[in-house]
User: Fold this.
Amino acid sequence: MNRILKFAVASAALTLFAFANAQTTAPPTTDPAGPIPVTGAVLDPSTPNGVGGAYSTPVQVSLFATEPDYPIVATYYSVDGGPLTLYSGPFIISGIGGHYVEAYSVDSFPDEGQLQVVASFTIAIPSPTINEPAAITVDATCPSGAVVNYGAITATDPVDGTIPVTTSPPSGSTFPLGTTTVTCTVIDSEGYTAQGFFTIQVLAPLQISQSVLASLQAIGTLPTRAEQRELQTAITDIEAANDLNLWANPSQPDPFIGLLVYLDWAAAELELYSLEFGAPGTVPTATLTVAIARIDDAAKVAALITLAQH
Assistant:
């Protein structure tokens, strides 16, 4: 009887243990018979819009996930191997270089998908292109040089379009005799920068006279012998004024024999005046008018520079 009782007690204990164990064992964390979530990405722009298969603009990344049996409750992603982040909406990647996005999703079972690369691409955004002007050459109008207004300079950016450029020295500055380099700097909304340069040359009196000589020599043959003689006489006078032996430096004639420069300029102007008004319609009067005005400026600046040093 004792054996039967002991067996009954043991059987009851085993049954209770099995029941209790069945009630406390946690359910499986994955659905063994169902699929796991699959995560993907949509890029905007959808295809590369730059050169060589790269994007030339920032890229917006949108993530999505599919699972036929259970709703998706969360998606996690990382960019370029960084920390995982809970996805809450589209995000933008703008850095220059190669990029990749990894992601996985979780459904309500909960099943976890595998962390995998869902997008990879390269961004090669060109810097802004500065539309700097060509080299500028002007005549000196005073001993300190000339005021030069070169206007507003812009840059073209693939994202921002036309954007303003900062220049140094700025437009409207007085540029000294000689050549000055203007530096152009621009930065766009993404922080990409560009720099460009152009030069402004302010001609000294001797250089002005040499430039006038070249413009007169370029006129060529005139209709009549008298007109041709007057033009050639003016050219000869300016050639004499440009004799380097008469100049202390390009800005001022020699203090002792430099008077000959002014006399030669004056003689050339008389010939040009005669040619300008004596044969209207047969010579390029605009060229002559400009030549006379430039000789006047050269003489004025040279005289002022000489006076300032005495």
